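Z., the sequence and structure:
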Amino acid sequence: MEDLVTKEEAYWLRQLLTNPHIGILVTDIDRKIIFVNEHLCEGIGYTKEELLGKDSRIFHVSNVSYDAFFKQVIEKVHRGEPFSIDYEVRHKDGHQVWITISGNLLESKTEVLWTIVDITDRVKKEQEIKQLKERMEIALSGYKAGVWEWNLVTNEVYISAEWKMMLGISSDSADSLDLWRSRVHPDDIDDVFNYIQNAIETKEKKLEHIHRLRHGNGEWIWVLARASAVYEDEYIRLVGIHTDITSQKNIENELLAQKQQLHHLAHHDALTGLPNRLLFHERLEQALQVVKKSDAKVAVFFIDLDYFKEINDAYGHDIGDIVLQIVTKRFLDKMDNENTLARLGGDEFAVIIQNMSSKEDAALLAQKFLDVFEDAIMINGKSFRLSCSIGISIYGDDAENTKTLLKYADVAMYEAKERGKNCYIFYK
């Protein structure tokens, strides 16, 4: 190996050979295998004896893919241009393995050093996401891996050219801990270095962490950092790789955002943004579970707007919708954040009041709700007058479960209607 590369290159190659995440392959000008490391052998199921001297097509999926691969990369290799592509190879037992592979022409100009990273798990995950969401058919434009080494005793750091390229940094930048540290996101930096410190203190041999690094263009990329720790008396060093997983993280974040949006839509009224009937029932159940452990009371309001149907029929749904939105805002202005106002449908609203000390607390809020209609609702210069009827039931006094509480509040609301509307009634 010393004859194939410079001493410095040979030194760093020796560091890579024992890294459990990187496969190393050297081929000659005829594409015969002249060197392979243990990790690559393990990854594709062959022994060194079965590979050495063989044509590298041995682990290509087919002759077609073999020819296409070299047609794609050979000119770049001979020009000394760095590249990194995702590629599918064949394991000895026949199953296929996804890798990221990059090649570098050695100084002899007759041998090529190939660096290989197994990305099968990542590819499988991407394929699962693609099956679930058609729009997730996003192919990563490339897969980049940067090698680094850190001597924790001397703080000497080696950063590969591929790492700098991945981060959009000039290849002439001096290797240093500051170069790496300055790139870590401010929100991640304590977590990253605390993780490393804890791993070293507990003598962990394999480290893995996900965090953000600042690209040269100012954007943040997500990286998966994997490293092997070497402990030799007082000498401690980490040898590892950073791989860019920004595309994967973006997909995961978008899926999470969509899931949150769907959850919100399923639990909230589209017109007013209030919790809907489903979420109201969930919150009421939660409130009752809490109050069972204390002496506090929970009240349930069932509210129906008086004369809303007449407005809706006379002026149309557009005006009716605006009325509902204005009423919602007026109600919310009278409530504490810990309580819940929900729209059950049409002109029906419901309220959960938590941590009440007495029924007077419920009566006070009910009166505030009635008072919001003292001022007419103005829409496009036209005045609209309406009121509301409120039925109230109290947990413990009237019922012990959500279904009965709602039923009794509904009964009380109809009694309020019968008494002339624009009033509140407690269930009796």
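The chain is about 40% helix and 25% strand. The chain has three domains: 7-118, 145-250, 268-426.

Let me know what you think.
H.
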